[in-house]
């Protein structure tokens, strides 16, 4: 197997063998047949000179750059980063050297050149409030930019929870009127890669799939690649046996916490969170939140910020006794009112009583 | 001739209370009460399910005393109780309910169904839906003094008869006697042995006793029909008599509902506690037995069994005494299945035996008693209720079973050694 | 509304509403029922040991002689599903946590596999008593819309809870939300259906025990 990518990898000390293994792992993670691994490797390795590599435009909207940070600082050496060698990242504000008019020109050039073929990656939500004035680039609101760029895109990747579901900007009371990409764009295939931030390998997996097959992988009803979001954190959690045994850490420094028991009672959202953290882990497979002793926040689920509190167990209601005292008073008052009415009625029947005589037994 | 639906409803509004509200709110329609009711078990007709017999009362309760019920009535979801409906329910509330209390005993949520039927009858009678048979009995009790129309001269004749036969005095209107003995008209007419037995027992125990010329009849048809005003009138006769004679204890005869009427309902009907004690004759005998005042000789050797009157055992709490007494005079006393607290009713209590048109159903229900008897196959059947006795005799005759029925008091008395000569001499 | 919003709503606003209606309804109904009062029994009491309202509250849980044989499905099925419900409701760790959060009271739970079994057995028993209600002439005769409705209200929370844990049909989040929603429906309707027997059963048993105790009948 030969190609520019392999050469570039070799220069960075990654052997062909390591690359093949990586592709095979990626393929298996995405539940593709074994042959797909090889196909992926070949497709990526054979990626031709820069001008003909698939064009990718990355638009950052109302976001914190955490997603970009996550992707660029993942493995070392950054295999994920190297995938970018297989694509032509024509516009990415954080990474690109160009700025100002140059950057804008690059964007428009890429759009024109690859019309209908480029892949659009979006991170960040789109604010609709005040006509989108909350977030503008080059004098245009994110809404305008998104609509304009999306027009010529082959497909859109909504990277991170903000782009996928609105994320933290959308959290109650959503002052900027933030929405997700799919709330605006209805006529293009959109794949959501939620997470705050998303797992790097999930992103590269989707890109690899796109490069190999020229299409998006199979998605669930929330537009997420099934391969990575098919199961809950809870289902794949190594602490699951403790849950089944009813062994729970009650505080972050008790016996249970030290023994690595289930963090359900400490508010872990694992049971309702679909993501691959428990299997893929973070930082090159070093660890992940639950392994480090903290419950899952559910960051890859819509509206995770407003889901009743990070440290409140799922079985616990947000605030069920809010109206209870009022309800109790109203109930008691209603009851007492009915009681008085009833007693009055019974009393009236009693005072109207006519002593029965024999004659009264017949009609 | 002034019974009306309006009156019935008014009376029901008076008698519906917290227990009834709690009972209706607790019913889960499990149907177990049906399994305890001989009118259902012997006919298999679900309309005889005890709680169903209260359906109009339930609706009335909800419509009158619950917010949702009122609302339901307002929007037409819950139909008002009508005369036609109550007429239809007459059979269920009177003919097919003997107030035996088995349903109340089995209800898993603790509904005292009989308590409710008793109260429902207040409304049924006030709205003119009581059966003719019971109305007649009430009429006779109130006007003549006894449901069978027995008057004082008939009692006096019986007294004379017994005095002659046994040589024992039968005191009448003896002031200051310890016991005032009541009778049921069935005993006066059909079972005169009872009076003789009392005389013998009292004589042996050395107790003073008396009959009362103004209150000899213990039965209370007013309670059976379910009319507290009339029931009170009848109880008042006894109270007046007992207070006039200044007796310590009034003895309720071998009659189930008379005991309930006087012992448990009496004070509540007249609205003040009694100044005297009320005991069933079986309780008195049990006490005498315990105190050694009752001495018998000899034993019956044929196979005997005992039919517990519902009002005495299940509804009255007298269960052990009759067994001790049976064993005192019998070598071969065998219990029927379910005997005691859970005994099956004869089928004619609570006024049911006075309803002519209910006879066919009663005979059908009697199959239950028949099956109980078939297990034991007794030579004779003993009981402690004159009404049970009549109903049992009818049923046994209907099914051509040759089992004589007798009262426990007489049976005991038969074993009391004849002491009249020594003492009288 | 997505499933997380649905879950958040049922855990938040939905539960607020349900718990409020439940508390309101229970108090209102209890007042409505027990304020009707009753006359004091002035007949002379016969006191016998073991005969009282309190005794009956417990004793009525045991079938009277001979009744088990006459209606085995009612008793055995009834026992199983009542006990099963109690196990599932009160001994499942997340439920205990909820109660602890609301009341501060807490106790050890049972392993989730056991709860799972209890839920399946409970549902089976409930189906059996439902079939019995359809088949037995008396039960069918007595049954009204309220009976079928109450059965459904009770069955759904068990079913959805079990399905959520087992990951059946719908994603866990949606199923959990449905589970909580069905519990809310149960809470809302409980005071106004025959399910209110969960409260009045104690009053009813106490009354009949008191009445019988007054007569010296120990039941």
Keywords:
heterotrimer; B: 425 residues; mainly alpha; Fumarate Reductase Iron-sulfur Protein, Chain B, domain 2; Rossmann fold; 3 domains; four-stranded parallel sheet; three-stranded parallel sheet; 22 helices; 7 strands; 54% helix; globular; disordered C terminus; C: 219 residues; 10 helices
Describe the protein's architecture and organization.
The complex is a heterotrimer of chains A (363), B (425) and C (219). Chain A has helices at 4-11, 16-29, 34-45, 66-72, 79-83, 100-113, 142-151, 160-165, 181-184, 200-213, 226-229, 233-236, 240-245, 255-258, 277-280, 324-351, and strands at residues 55-60, 88-92, 118-123, 126-127, 136-137, 140-141, 153-159, 178-179, 190-193. In chain A, the strands form three sheets. A five-stranded parallel β-sheet of chain A has the order 2-1-3-7-9. In chain A, strands 4-8 form a two-stranded antiparallel ribbon. The radius of gyration of chain A is 29 Å and the shape is elongated. Chain A has two domains: 4-227, Rossmann fold (3-Layer(aba) Sandwich); 233-362, Cytochrome-c3 Hydrogenase, Chain A, domain 2, CATH 4.10.480. With 363 residues, chain A is of the alpha/beta class. Chain B contains 22 helices and seven strands. In chain B, helix 5 (55-65) packs across helix 6 and helix 19 (359-376) packs across helix 20 (386-398). By secondary structure, chain B is mostly helical. The chains are: A alpha/beta (363), B mainly alpha (425), C mainly alpha (219). Chains B and C meet through helix 2, helix 3, helix 8 and helix 16 of B and helix 1, helix 7 and helix 10 of C.
């Amino acid at each position: 197997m030969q190609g520019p990518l392999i050469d570039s990898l070799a220069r960075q000390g990654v052997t062909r063998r390591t690359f093949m293994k990586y592709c095979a792992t990626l393929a298996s993670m995405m539940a593709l047949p074994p042959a797909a691994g090889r196909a992926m490797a070949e497709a990526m390795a054979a990626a031709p000179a820069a001008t003909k590599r698939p064009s990718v435009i990355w638009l950052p909207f109302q976001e914190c750059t955490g997603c970009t940070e996550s992707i660029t600082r993942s493995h070392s050496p950054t295999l994920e980063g190297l995938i970018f060698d297989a694509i032509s990242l024509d516009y990415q504000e954080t990474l690109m050297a160009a700025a100002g008019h140059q950057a804008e020109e690059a964007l428009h050039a890429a759009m024109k050149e690859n019309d209908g073929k480029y892949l659009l990656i979006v991170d960040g939500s789109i604010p609709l409030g005040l006509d989108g004035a909350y977030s503008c680039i080059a004098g245009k609101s994110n809404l305008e930019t998104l609509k304009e760029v999306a027009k010529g895109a082959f497909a859109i990747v909504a990277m991170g929870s903000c782009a996928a579901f609105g994320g933290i900007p959308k959290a109650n009371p959503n002052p900027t009127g933030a929405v997700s990409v799919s709330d605006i764009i209805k006529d293009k295939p959109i794949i959501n890669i939620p997470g705050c931030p998303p797992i790097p390998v999930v992103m590269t997996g989707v890109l690899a799939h796109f490069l190999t097959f020229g299409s998006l992988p199979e998605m669930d009803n929330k537009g997420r690649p099934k391969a990575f979001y098919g199961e809950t954190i809870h289902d794949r959690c190594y602490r699951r046996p403790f849950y089944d045994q009813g062994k729970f850490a009650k505080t972050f420094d008790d016996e249970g916490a030290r023994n690595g028991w289930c963090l359900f009672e400490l508010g872990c959202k694992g049971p309702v969170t679909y993501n691959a953290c428990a299997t893929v882990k973070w930082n090159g497979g070093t660890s992940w939140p639950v392994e480090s002793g903290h419950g899952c926040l559910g960051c890859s689920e819509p509206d995770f910020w407003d889901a009743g509190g990070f440290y409140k167990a799922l079985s616990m209601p947000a605030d069920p006794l809010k109206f209870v005292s009022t309800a109790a008073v109203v109930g008691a008052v209603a009851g007492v009112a009915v009681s008085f009415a009833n007693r009055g009625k019974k009393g009236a029947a009693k005072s109207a009583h006519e002593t029965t005589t024999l004659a009264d037994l017949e009609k | 001739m002034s019974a009306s639906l309006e009156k019935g409803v008014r009376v029901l509004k008076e008698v519906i209370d917290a227990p009834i509200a709690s009972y209706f709110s607790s019913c889960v329609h499990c149907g177990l009460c049906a399994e305890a009711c001989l009118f259902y078990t012997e006919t298999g007709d679900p309309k005889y399910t005890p709680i169903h017999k209260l359906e109009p009362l339930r609706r009335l309760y909800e419509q009158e005393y619950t917010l949702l019920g009122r609302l339901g009535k307002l929007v037409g979801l819950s139909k008002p109780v009508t005369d036609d409906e109550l007429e239809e329910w007459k059979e269920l509330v009177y003919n097919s309910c003997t107030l035996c209390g088995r349903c109340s005993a089995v209800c898993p949520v603790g509904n005292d169904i009989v308590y409710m039927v008793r109260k429902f009858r207040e409304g049924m009678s006030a709205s003119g839906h009581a059966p003719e048979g019971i109305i007649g009995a009430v009429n006779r009790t109130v006007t003549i003094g006894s449901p069978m129309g027995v008057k004082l001269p008939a009692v006096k004749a019986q007294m004379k008869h017994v005095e002659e036969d046994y040589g024992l005095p039968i005191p009448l209107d003896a002031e200051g006697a310890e016991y005032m003995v009541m009778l049921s008209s069935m005993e006066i007419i059909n079972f005169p042995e009872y009076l003789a037995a009392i005389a013998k027992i009292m004589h042996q125990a050395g107790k003073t006793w008396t009959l009362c010329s103004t209150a000899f009849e213990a039965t209370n048809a007013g309670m059976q029909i379910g009319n507290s005003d009339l029931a009170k009138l009848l109880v008042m006769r006894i109270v007046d008599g007992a207070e006039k004679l200044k007796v310590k204890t009034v003895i309720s005869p071998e009659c189930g509902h008379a005991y309930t009427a006087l012992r448990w309902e009496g004070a509540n009907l007249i609205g003040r506690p009694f100044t005297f004690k009320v005991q069933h004759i079986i309780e008195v005998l049990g006490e005498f037995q315990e105190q050694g005042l009752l001495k018998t000789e000899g034993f019956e050797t044929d196979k005997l069994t005992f039919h517990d009157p519902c009002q005495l055992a299940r509804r009255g709490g007298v269960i052990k005494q009759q067994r001790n007494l049976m064993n005192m005079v019998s070598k071969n006393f065998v219990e029927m299945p379910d005997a005691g607290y859970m005994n099956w009713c004869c089928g004619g209590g609570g006024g049911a035996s006075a309803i002519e048109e209910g006879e066919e159903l009663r005979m059908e229900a009697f199959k239950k008693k028949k099956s109980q008897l078939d297990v034991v196959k007794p030579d004779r059947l003993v009981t402690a209720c004159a009404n049970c006795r009549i109903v049992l005799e009818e049923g046994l005759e209907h099914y051509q079973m040759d089992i004589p029925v007798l009262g426990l008091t007489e049976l005991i008395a038969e074993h009391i050694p004849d002491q009249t000569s020594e003492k009288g001499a | 509304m997505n499933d997380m919003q649905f879950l958040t709503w049922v855990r938040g606003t939905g539960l607020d509403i349900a718990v409020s209606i439940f508390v309101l309804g229970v108090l209102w109904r209890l007042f409505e029922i027990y304020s009707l009062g009753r006359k004091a029994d002035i007949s002379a009491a016969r006191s016998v040991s073991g005969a009282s309202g309190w005794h009956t509250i417990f004793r009525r849980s045991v079938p009277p002689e001979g009744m088990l044989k006459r209606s085995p499905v009612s008793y055995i099925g009834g026992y199983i599903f009542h006990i099963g419900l109690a196990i599932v409701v009160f001994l499942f760790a997340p439920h205990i946590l909820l109660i602890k959060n609301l009341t501060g009271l807490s106790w050890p739970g049972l392993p989730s596999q056991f709860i799972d079994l209890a839920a399946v057995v409970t549902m089976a028993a409930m189906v059996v008593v439902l079939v019995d209600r359809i088949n037995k002439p008396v039960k069918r005769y007595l049954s009204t819309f309220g009976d079928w409705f109450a059965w459904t209200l009770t069955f759904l929370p068990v079913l959805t809870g079990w399905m959520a844990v087992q990951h059946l049909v719908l994603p866990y989040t949606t199923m959990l939300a449905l589970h909580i929603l069905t519990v809310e429906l149960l809470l809302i309707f409980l005071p106004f259906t025959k399910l209110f027997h969960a409260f009045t059963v104690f009053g009813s048993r106490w009354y009949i025990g008191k009445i019988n105790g007054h007569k010296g009948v120990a039941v």
